Amino acid sequence: MTRLGEGRASWEFGRLVVLLELSNISKHFGAIQAVNDISLSLEAGQVVGLMGDNGAGKSTLVKMIAGNFRPSEGTMRLNGSEIVLHRPVEARHFGIEIVHQDLALCDNLTAAANVFLGRELRRGIGPLGVLDYKAMYRRAAEIFKELRSETRARDLVKQMSGGQRQAVAIARTMISEAKIVLMDEPTAAISVRQVAEVLHLIRQLRDRGILVVLISHRMPDVFDVADRVVVMRRGRKVADKPIIETSPEEVTGLITGAIEGG
């Protein structure tokens, strides 16, 4: 069993390596079978689109990876070592971060304050330590620059566009050196220009060797940015294909059941 803090992703001589393995993962809530016997091998430096209709089990599967739910059956392995997650804080110790659809940002705080919320940098020792705002503003600005985002560390979140808010949420995952970022509908209810900005941010994560699992109903976004697409229907995986080997029409058929998955 892997201890907290171990099991970080790695690049092996420049090629993608398997980072996260799910074996026969199931989750039921009483008589309701939300996820049924899912097996997946996911690689570092890859964007995996996770698609399916409402109630297909996508969010439940991602919440198990994030430590919100424990699987009823099955195992998860990180870099080949089995992990058991009881809480999201444990998932973060393993480098697993989730960006929820509502982003969970504080509108009355600056971008930098949101990035470091609950993980504030301090100067001094013990009870005499004080918040190091200068260091937090500087590091947040560095992360936004790395992401090639126009978001500014000192701006209030309530004044930001949807794309800038996503940049703040993504930057928050990067201060903990995340190796897996789970994103739930990041392009929902934002403008076309902001969608392009968010997809750019996702590519930046991938280029840093991070595994991104992208839940989305937006077919163009998945085909624009994903390397693979996994389709779920009624709690089961019905397809797992490289994006270049499928089409929006096929994925739509798999989601609706018009095409039977294998």
Automatic annotation (TrEMBL):
Per its record, what are the GO molecular function terms?
ATP binding
Alphabetical UniProt keywords: ATP-binding, Nucleotide-binding, Plasmid
Gene3D superfamilies recorded: P-loop containing nucleotide triphosphate hydrolases
Alphabetized PROSITE patterns for the sequence: ABC_TRANSPORTER_1, ABC_TRANSPORTER_2
Q: Where is the ABC transporter domain?
A: 20-259
Pfam families in the cross-refs: ABC_tran
Q: Which domain of life is it from?
A: Bacteria
Q: Which family does it belong to?
A: Belongs to the ABC transporter superfamily.
The protein's name is ATP-binding cassette domain-containing protein
